[in-house]
Design goal:
single chain; 90 residues; mainly alpha; 67% helix; transferase
Amino acid sequence: MTAPKQEKWIYKNKDKLDVKFLGPISAVFDFYAGIKKRPHPIFQKMGLEWFVRFLMEPYRLWRRNIVSNPKFLLRIIHQYFSQSEVRRKE
């Protein structure tokens, strides 16, 4: 299952499962199976593995990196400031 399908499935089904943790694993199986190579460890250490993967597969990953990530960041920022406002009122 690809992103964001796996995240949506987890959110929809989390209450039906008797587990303590649910987490998407993205391309982990592809890496372990040898189907895809991980970027150089330098990029992994710098936290830029996603960027190298995007450059290698832009047509597959463009929506996730160009559309979904900024939306996600905006939601986090909005939630942070909403909670800050609630804390100030208390």
